[in-house]
Amino acid sequence: MKQILFLFLLFFTFSHAEYLDNHSCNECHEKIYEEYQLSFHTKGYFNDTLHRKIADQVSSEKYSCATCHMPMADNLDELITGAARPDKNNKTHTDAISCYFCHTIAYVKTAHKFNVNTKSRQAKNYKPTLYGRLDNPDDSDKHSSTSNPVYAKRVCMGCHSHKLNDNNITVFRAMETKQNSIGCIKCHMPEVSGGAEKMDKRARGRHKSHKFLGIHDKVFRKTGLDINISTQENKILVTLHNKMEHPLIIQPARVKFLKIELIRANKVIWKNYTKKPSEDKQGYFAYSFKQEGKKIIIPAHADEGESYNLLSKEIKELVYRVPEVQSQDKITVGMYVQLAKDDCAKVVDLTGTNYTEPQLMKETEVIIK
Question: Are strands 105-109 and 116-119 parallel, antiparallel or unpaired?
Fold first, then answer.
């Protein structure tokens, strides 16, 4: 009986440590906090309309997305089971993917449906210990600091690896088991000037950007893909090289597609689609799902699923038959992203919003000699 009581008290002591909200980091990490505020880690149920509408379509009771999108919720289990709903007056809810969460991951467990972030156990009435990659990090009056190898190996794998629904259908996949976080950090957290702390007491002079650059950054999204154009009489050959550590399309709500035009004397004489980009089956990259043989848009209950994709580091050549190419013809090839593909936007009532506005990722053109 005494042993059981001891274990209960130990768990209680370690599970009620004080939560450091996002704004509290600003006092010492002003630059990093400024970067973080521009990142999509600050987006969650209350300030990301697309995410909220999809989550509500999945279930009006349970908020199972909380595992990754509201991970510091003080009632996480209740949110996932449907015993509670997101609360805009609860700081552990509105902080979304918070600083405290990302810096208290002790271990990432690999699992079939989705990986699991194991949080460090923080002692009540003591300063929490925050993890990172810095050697000999500084402590503060708010927290202790230490380096943890998981931040070079697996820290991104907890939420950004894969997600399967209850029917074992993949609804999200960005990373493979053999990958580590170094590739993610290299691209999405490049080194920038300035120390990790406002005072830069150790004169480090550089830190990893916490903007977490991604598809929403116009400059960054150009860097992950190479597009090359060549011709053979009445053919246009488009070679795509995915330079990224993850597939071209990883989010089931999104679509990425090619817009190809053959221009002669300032007139478009051929295009790879007439009305909708989906007409071009080889240049339209997206997920598709079915339930009991019928197409569905929200994949939570799908029993079939597939994606037409460009895998990590993959090179794919697409061939288009066109009118015979002549000297001085211009060919333009652009890759676009739509954050909510048309059928998804219709289901969640976002048609005509900026979520359905195609955004240019990268464009290449050649003039035939």
Answer: antiparallel
When the candidates are 1.10.8.110, 2.60.40.10, 2.40.30.10, 3.40.50.10190, the CATH number that belongs to 220-367 is 2.60.40.10
User: How many Å apart are CA 146 and CA 149, to the nearest integer?
Assistant: 10
Strand partners, 320: 236
Residue 198: predicted pLDDT: 81
Residues of the chain below pLDDT 50: 1-15
- Taking a C-beta distance cutoff of 8 angstroms, is the pair 305, 288 a contact? yes
Supply the pTM of this predicted model: 0.90
Where in the chain does DSSP place strands (E)? Answer: 105-109, 116-119, 129-132, 144-147, 162-164, 170-173, 191-193, 206-208, 225-232, 235-242, 255-264, 267-271, 284-291, 294-296, 304-308, 315-321, 330-338, 359-367
Determine the Cα–Cα distance for residues 304 and 168; give it in Å rounded to an integer.
9
Amino acid symbol at 250: I
CB 62 within 8 Å of CB 80: yes
Which is it for the CA torsion 157, 163, 169, 175, positive or negative? negative
Spatial contact of 67 and 114, defined as CB atoms under 8 Å apart: yes
Q: Is 19 helix (H, G, I), strand (E, B) or coil?
A: coil
**Token pair belonging to 296:** 């569905």
Predicted confidence at residue 5, as pLDDT, reads 38
8 A C-beta contact, residue 318 and residue 240: yes
CA distances from 55 to 50, 62, 116, 189 (A): 9, 9, 20, 28
Question: Where along the chain do its domains lie?
Answer: 2-43+96-208, 220-367
SS3 label, residue 24: helix
Q: How far is CA 267 from the centre of its chain?
A: 38
What the block records as the tokens of 104 is 């208290």
User: Can you give the pLDDT at residue 179?
Assistant: 85
Q: Token match 């980009």: residue?
A: 277
CA–CA separation, 159 and 173 (whole Å): 10
> Quick one: pLDDT at residue 286?
97
DSSP reduced 3-state for 101: helix
Q: Residue 145's CB: how many other CB atoms inside 10 A?
A: 18
Residue 301, amino acid: H
CA distance 344 to 53: 10
